[in-house]
Amino acid sequence: MVPDIPSFAFDDGFAYRVPPELAGQAAVGSLVRVPLAGRRVRGYVIGLEEGGAGPETGRLKDVRSLAAPVPVFTPALLESLRWAARHYAAPLSAVLAKAGPPNLPKQAPPLDLPGVPPAAGPVPELSEAAAAGRGPGRTVQLIAAGGWAELIREAVSAPVRAEKSVLVAAPTAVEAAELAGRLRADLGSRVVEVSDQQNASITSAWSQAAAQGGLVVVGTLRVGWWPVKDLSMMVLVEDGRRAMKERQTPTVAVRTLAAARSSAEGLQLLLVGRLPTVQTLYEDAAVVRVPGRLWAPVEIVDRTEDPPGGGVVATRVRAAVAAVRRRGGRVFVFTHRRGYAPASRCAQCRRLRSCPSCGSRPAHRADCPRCRAELGPCPCGGTRFEPLGAGVGRVIEELRRVAGEEVGSVDSGRRVMVGTERDLTAAPAVDLAVAVDADGLVRGTNYRSAEDALAVLARTAASVRRGSGCRMMVQTAEPGHPIYTALLRADPFPFLRGELAARRRFSLPPCGEVLVVEVTGEVDPAVLEPAFEGAAVYGPAQDEDRTRWMVQDDDLRKVKGRLRPAVGRLRDKGVKVRVDVDPREF
Questions:
Q1: Residue 348's pLDDT band (boundaries 50, 70, 90)?
Q2: How far apart are the two ends of the chain, measured CA to CA in Å?
Q3: Which domains does the chain have, with CATH numbers?
Q4: Entry pTM
Q5: Peptide bond into 3 cis (omega under 30)
Q6: Are the CB atoms for 108 and 212 separated by under 8 Å?
């Protein structure tokens, strides 16, 4: 039994005797209450052994009771949970807790499920394998501009008709609710929705999914942990989005967890989205592309053609916004910051400012936020830099000179809307989309910045409705960058193959491993740094009261093993430690 206490010290668990009155009720995954250190705690059963009446068994303390009648994980899922604890350097109990609902589960009564008509799905081999309960096949990436709900409905038809269940994970609660609603139109009560609900509703959904096969469980990344009965397939929608990775320790990516579950439990894995990720190419997944253009036509606006001091919005873009406004159309202007301008250019030569050492986009400071190199003047000798992008407030202010009071945030209902990535989900279809500072995304401080930039810009382009003159305008000081070629051609593969080659060359994920350790408060580096032996270590870097290390190698399993007790000692002293495996942000 592993106590429900997030500490590495309890990972091996403790042995207890199951009293006769509980014999046959306790199982792997059961929540039990046991005595520990003078108090009664809740814990997870991770194994059962037959014992005799010998002296060793007599010295064991008894399990006092079952906390819930339903196990919160199965033996097959336990294998994946143990793997996740090792991979993400997290206490086992913290990972086991992810498999359960927010409240104690109850036994759910069976639902009266409707029939499922047959459907000719886009991935028939995957669907048939899931229906037959065959072992994990090759991961399939389904690429389409839209209509994902219908494609998923067709893909899950065969396993659901065979009374097998399917897990569907979407990036946000809003998208999960919309997807569940569309699927429910055809599948009725077979769809179990997990979106922005109260804990009682989520617990009820968990209980239903754990009790009955033939369901389609739709939710955010949290459902990726669930012990769904007769599970045969996992579907991930836009698995490369930031929202598909936990921000708090353990920093689990649902794609990585799904791959582990697929291997351990024999599940089929289907990825659905507008473009694949570098990881998809690395894993050599089978790619199935639905015919049609992936996003609206794109027009590149070269910011170096504008005179210095021309403002955040280029002259051509202002004219386009005014034209759309005159004919009663809608505009969405995308900026990825709510604060200051994230990128700048030299006022003398109009070249984009970047770090001379690592090439990343610098912040408003004298040194690089990624490698701490001194930035110095522009290669042309210029020392004055002007902003290329800005936050929502400044963009709204500047566009109001063109469109007056018709400019506002997405929730304002104005015809010209300004927002960030989180507003894309709520934005209606528009006639014109504008990215005011694409370079600020591309030149981010993370090795994934360019890939993430393409995904966000593609999503922005996809907000444009189909029609004559409808398009996306992208402002950049580097029009020759491969990302903009990918956007113009609506073909991400050449860029992604180049990214994969670069990551393989530098042993970056998915070709290698990276983790970041962040400690808040005072810390003696000698406590952690011995765990990093044999790997490339960058740091410690100090930022106010935080100390950070970045660790990189082809394989960090040994480092993670040594890191666990070191992190445990610090946390036992009350020190806040965050371990981010395969970080999205540095």
A1: confident
A2: 37
A3: 2-99 (3.40.1440.60), 124-289 (3.40.50.300), 298-491 (3.40.50), 513-581 (3.30.70.600)
A4: 0.90
A5: no
A6: yes
